[in-house]
Amino acid sequence: MSEGSSGSWDSRPQENVPGQEGRETHRDPGRPGRPDGADVHGWYTRGMELLDRGSAAAAAQVLQRAAAAEPASRSVREALARAQFDAGRYTEAAANFRVIVEASPSDDYAHFGLGLALARNGEHAAAAEYLALAAAMRPDAKHYTDALRQVRATLRAQRGEAR
Q1: CATH number of the domain located at residue range(s) 94-163 in this protein
Q2: What are 27's strand-pairing partners?
Q3: Which neighbouring-strand residues pair with 8?
Q4: I want to staple 87 with a disulfide (CB 3.0 to 4.6 A). Which of 13, 23, 28, 56 is the partner?
Q5: Model confidence over 86-109: pLDDT tens digits?
Q6: What is the C-alpha separation between 43 and 67, in angstroms, rounded?
């Protein structure tokens, strides 16, 4: 995920990527119309390449296909949420990060992503909750605490409070 002019936020390496490299792409004969793991892996890989090159909207399109085929894949859903965030589709990104948070409450990065997406949607109070959880889980992650500090400053400004 990128975070404005302050540079890129850290993203963790992808793990548990669906599909297997080197497999020929085809449809699963046992499930007509459903792509097999190689299709999903190809979509995931292509989506990540597009995201890495800064083509977030295109990445989101490809990753949406992978997520539809493998809705339980955390790595696909996280990549989709990151692409949606970078494409400015904050409501969709928040929804995908929320699915990850609900499935894995100890996932600090999902809390962070959800908090950022909510903040971009103007939901600063809710954002502060998720960012505080992320910062508590990983106090060494400066970008988590920086984001929390920014959201809390916005909340104070909205209430007309001085620092």
Answers
A1: 1.25.40.10
A2: 35
A3: 2
A4: 56
A5: 999 999 999 999 999 999 999 999
A6: 9
Structure token pair of residue 123:
């939901």
CB contact set of 146 (below 8 Å; sequence gap of 6+): none
CA atoms of 13 and 139, how far apart (whole Å) = 19
Q: Which two tokens stand for residue 47?
A: 């989506």
- Grouping H, G, I as helix, E, B as strand and the rest as coil, residue 93 is helix
Query: Cα–Cα–Cα angle for 156, 162, 163, nearest 5°?
Result: 80
In the block, residue with structure tokens 């106090």: 139
- pTM above threshold 0.85: no
Looking at residue 52, its amino acid is D
Domain edges within the chain: 26-88, 94-163
Give the SS3 label for residue 65: helix
